[in-house]
Structure prediction request, 256 residues.
Amino acid sequence: MKNALDFIKFALTHAKRESIPDEAKLPIDIEDCGGDPWEYLYGTTGHAVTEALLEERYKNFYSKKGWTRAAFDIATENWAALKRKVCDCQGLLDCFLGADVTANYCYTAWCTERGAIADVERPYKIGEALFYRNADGRMTHVGFVCGFLNGEPLAVEARGIRYGVVVSKFAERPWTHRGLVSQKLSYDNDFRDEPLILSVTSPMIQGEMIKHLQKALNALGYYSGPADGKCGRLTMHGVGEFAAAHADKNAAEKEA
Prediction:
């Protein structure tokens, strides 16, 4: 099973950098976002644009949704010449997974801990899916929590043909439902909006962040036990020794 954090890192490399709010807290540096920005085209999952693809999508979808050929050509101008890549909202995840389903299927078949936003009280997780449900009760659009801004979730989404893949503020979009895509993604990640306070708890704080910390402490000579990703007494002992050593060093430097 693939990791939700890895999916979000993948998605952010395809988001248009100019859409990312200042001071956004993301699991990758903003400078690493948008290296390969994608456009939106309904019914695609990371396809390279060709004139034939544009013709097929206009004929079989956009012309039936009220788009004139002139408006469609303006919206997709130079996409083929520039060899742009495209996906639709669910196609962003489908490309990562090697699948091809709808947003409604994602919600009904892949999501757990799901429901209307007002009814789900747990904190938002990186990689969690956000949905828009239409009047017929079907999920017609999906985005994914990719970070935070002053505590508010941010979503990476393939928003529409005039937008492409962008990062949006939660409050500015009409999300109605949410859920963890736990049938396809694991949520064993440690990205947080707030600092992680280490302590010995039951159950133990654990994850990749703890494992990296243990490896670093052990390499520096502050033994914190095996690098198993679990914050126990040995880990806290190593943290304490490191903190004490650097506190003494800082105090000595100030006296000098």
